[in-house]
Design brief:
single chain; alpha/beta; Rossmann fold; Alpha-Beta Plaits; five-stranded parallel β-sheet; 23 helices; about 10% strand; HptR; DNA-binding
């Protein structure tokens, strides 16, 4: 769906644009405009499916824009967003067929609910036009997205409603053909291909998608699949008497995939078989057991089928083995001892390899615990350069792409030692240490009266030298950093509390409300009350 946003305030346009995951709704914002004339011009040329507009705008106001649009494109939907609660505005909008009327400040939940409703109505409307091939193609693609969305929610997120799931309702709503019988999730895990190798990933994904149809798809009543990185979750619905045939078809699927090793030499395949269930609501449990089965490849090896087992929580953080490792690991970080840090990871690897009770799931959880412990420790020691916000997510995704215990531990060790080297370099830079201490003092005492003299006394430098050093090492002045810390905290308080601006001013270290308001406007481009109205 093509979407046009029209509001005379540019920041409101950007706010609306940022509040919504447009791609997830299969919508595309084609333009943001600030007056009715520009909006009508785009409507005439681009025919958007949805227009989100303010009531009061220069040129044509919202109601006039709706009136003129309906003569050009009667099917175009509207959402009116207005700061006015006057009854007549809503009444006039209703006369033109507008059913969606939201008041400022725009709330994310309300806006997304209206968009989802319009999205569903839009596809119901175009679905009726069976004669149009182009429309039918869009519907088909949308059905696939709806099916994938259902599978993502039930298999990856467990976000569907609790209790019994009505088969007929699901079939109608999500375009499936589930029938009475057995339900089972299998997971096909691709190893050996880097997530960055887009061409190879696309090739094996396409090959697997077609093989599913040719193998299990011919025997099952219904199948569906959804990808999450290099994990393919496949849903099977089949008659009980077909169980052996389905098992044989899954084996054929594995054998067919292994033939691709002639093309992709580093390819390794594992298929985890989830526990069988007789009810749709049991599919998330089946998905979990299939995931645990795939994770057992770390011990059992790849290029095979692995039966699913019951799920259980990780015991790693509570074991004596991990507690002993924890002490040595943290001591190595705090003492900047590279050999002790490296040896602690190697020792942990050997102890896990010797364990008869360790599971693949616990190995992966342990690796995540180790990285979390490392990041937490260096943060507590005020490492100036922390990994970027997405680092842990990238680490986790790449960790789950390792195909054996040794690969997991090697990857973990490489990542830890790389970050540790950067940490050591920072710590050994003596001129940088006073700046880290000064920043930490500011972050912990921003609500108090702070000056260069006070902070200088804390780190052992006079005010003039600290000012020069701060600018040189940090790239900004002492006062700029203090203002940044205070303003970021003020933004949090304005969004998350109902404290009036005077209280917020006092809580972030300002005694003068006028001075606080001036600095806040310079920092954000908005007055405190304006910021709260838009973002709270």
């Amino acid at each position: 769906m093509k979407v046009l946003i029209a509001d005379d305030e540019e920041k409101i346009c950007q706010l609306i644009k940022n509040l919504v995951n447009w791609e997830e709704l299969d919508m595309d914002v084609i333009a943001c405009v600030n007056d009715g004339i520009a909006a009508l011009d785009i409507i005439e040329h681009d025919k958007p499916d949805l227009v989100i507009t303010d009531i009061r705008m220069p040129g044509y106001d919202g109601l006039e824009l709706i009136k003129r649009t309906k003569t050009i494109s009667p099917e175009t939907e509207f959402i009116i967003i207005s700061g006015y609660r006057h009854f007549e505005y809503a009444q006039n909008a209703i006369r033109y067929g507008v059913k969606n009327y939201l008041l400022k400040p725009v709330k994310k939940i309300e806006l997304n609910e209206e968009l989802e409703k319009i999205h569903n109505n839009y596809y119901l409307r175009i679905q009726k036009d069976e004669d149009n091939f182009k429309t039918s193609l869009v519907i088909k693609q949308n059905k696939e997205k709806i099916r994938c969305g259902f599978l993502e929610n039930i298999l990856l997120k467990n976000q569907l409603k609790q209790g019994p799931m009505e088969r007929t309702e699901i079939n109608e709503k999500y375009h499936f053909n589930f029938q009475e019988g057995r339900y089972q999730i299998i997971i096909v895990k691709i190893d050996g291909l880097k997530l960055s190798d887009k061409k190879e990933i696309e090739y094996i994904h396409d090959k697997l998608n077609r093989l599913i149809t040719k193998t299990v798809g011919k025997i099952c009543l219904e199948t569906g699949y959804v990808w999450s990185d290099n994990f393919c979750y496949v849903l099977l619905n089949y008659r009980q008497e077909k169980s052996k045939e389905v098992r044989h078809a899954v084996r054929n699927l594995l054998d067919s995939l292994l033939l691709q090793k002639d093309i992709l030499r580093n390819l390794f395949i594992t298929i985890g078989l989830g526990e069988v269930t007789n009810a749709l609501e049991g599919m998330f449990h089946s998905s979990n057991s299939a995931r645990r089965a795939v994770e057992q490849r770390l011990f059992k090896g790849t290029n095979r089928l692995i039966e699913g087992v019951g799920t259980k929580n990780s015991r790693i953080p509570y074991t004596r083995m991990f507690r002993e490792f924890n002490k040595k690991f943290v001591r190595g970080i705090e003492s900047l001892n590279e050999s002790e840090l490296s040896a602690s990871i190697t020792e942990l690897y050997h102890r896990m390899a010797e364990s008869e009770e360790m599971t693949g799931y616990e190995v992966l959880q342990m690796a995540k615990e180790v990285m979390t412990l490392f990041l937490f420790t260096i943060k507590n020691h005020d490492m100036t350069e922390q990994p970027d916000e997405d680092y842990y997510d990238r680490f986790t995704r790449n960790l789950e792409n390792q195909g054996s215990l040794s690969e997991v531990m090697q990857f973990l060790k490489e990542q830890v030692m790389k970050l540790f080297s950067e940490y050591v370099f920072t710590c050994m830079n003596e001129e940088n240490r006073p700046i880290r201490e000064a920043k930490r003092y500011i972050r912990e005492n921003y609500q108090k009266s702070i000056s260069l003299d006070i902070v200088g006394a804390q780190v052992g430098f006079n005010a003039a030298y600290l000012s020069t050093l701060f600018k040189r090492e940090a790239g900004y002045t002492f006062s700029e950093y203090l203002t940044q810390v205070r303003m970021e905290r003020a933004k949090e308080l304005l969004k998350e509390t109902d404290d009036n601006v005077a209280v917020v001013c006092e809580n972030v270290g300002y005694n003068d409300l006028k001075n606080f308001t001036k600095n806040f406007r310079i920092y954000t481009g908005l007055r405190p009350n304006e910021y709260r109205k838009i973002y709270s």
